[in-house]
User: What shape does this take?
Amino acid sequence: MKLTLTPMQSRVLAIALLLAVLAVLAVLVYVPWKQAHLYYDAAIADRLDRTSRYLRVAAQRKNVEANIALIAKRNASRFYLKASSPALAAAEVQQMAQAIVEANGLTVESTQFSSHKDDGPRRKVTVSFRLRGPLPAVQKALYELETALPYLYVDNLVIRSNAGRNAKPAPGVEPDTLVQFDLYAFTRLAKPAPNKS
Assistant: This one.
């Protein structure tokens, strides 16, 4: 069966096909064009936002430089150990800590130097301690250690009581506790001498 169209029907069909082809072409052109515009609009908004943030940061430059100059005037070396070699720095930490610990009536059972760790222009020096004494003295000694200059930091703190679970201490007598901790401080690395070539 052969379908024959009248001239009017064939013209309408031709116009409909033409409109369908134009619609498909329009979609094929418009959709990528619209996606490209959305992509570039987002990129432009991102760049404008980044530029405005950079301008805000740049506007604070004088204030930041003034703060840096103020900090540079302060003596920052007082927060660091004096010695730069690991052994001397560890001995300095041990000497400071031992003075504080003994001033609070605690007994130093052992000390051990741990390995040092270089972190940029600083070196972290760690000394492990094992102490014995009453808990109030331990608390006071730990407070003095962490508030001393140069800064000392207590890490890996373990406090154990020597008394058993059912032990009752004598009135007015504080039982001894066993305290273990790592004490570390920072020292500045010596700057290498410039090569003369």
